[in-house]
Write a structure and sequence with these properties.
Layout (H helix, E strand, L loop, with lengths): L1 E4 L2 E7 L4 E4 L4 H9 L4 H11 L2 E2 H5 L7 H13 L3 E3 L10 E4 L1 H4 L2 H14 L10 H10 L1
Antiparallel strand pairs: 1-2, 2-3, 4-6, 5-6
Length: about 140
């Protein structure tokens, strides 16, 4: 559905699980509507690295995501089929999450972003790690 909102156009997708306001029909903008915040791809990163994570384990990540934001992102990513709870009958807070097929496909995006960042941001961020070193460090923690 397309609606006019104060001079801009919002695209609203409705399904049983969520309602999202899409900024446009552009595939890049649509992907950023879901993954463009600073937390969603880090959740996907952690699930790719560790295969499963609980709510508490996400809270322990070095980036220190706020609990209200984490709960919101987990709900959104679950509703879009990017991640799933291992036991749908357990409460979300006490449940482990894993990537779906769709979520696993995002690794190429995360890997490319990490490699781009390492190549292009070293001058302004001299402590930045390579993707390989970052993976090794995260898997040890």
């Amino acid at each position: 559905m397309r609606t006019e909102t104060g001079g801009s156009v919002a695209f609203i997708a409705k399904n049983k699980k969520s309602e999202i306001e899409w900024r446009s029909e552009c595939p890049v903008a649509s992907g950023l509507d879901i993954l463009g915040d600073k937390w969603s791809l880090l959740i996907v990163r952690d699930l790719w690295l560790f295969r499963t994570r609980t709510y508490s384990e996400f809270c322990e990540s070095p980036e220190k995501i706020a609990t209200n934001i984490l709960a919101n992102r987990l709900k959104l990513l679950t509703s879009l089929g990017i991640i799933e709870r291992l036991d749908v009958d357990r409460p979300a807070r006490n449940n482990a999450y894993r990537l779906t097929k769709s979520g696993k496909e995002l690794w190429r995006v995360i890997d490319a972003l990490g490699r781009w960042s390492h190549t292009n941001l070293r001058e302004s961020h001299p402590d930045i790690l390579s993707v390989e070193k970052a993976i090794a460090i995260y898997k040890k923690s």
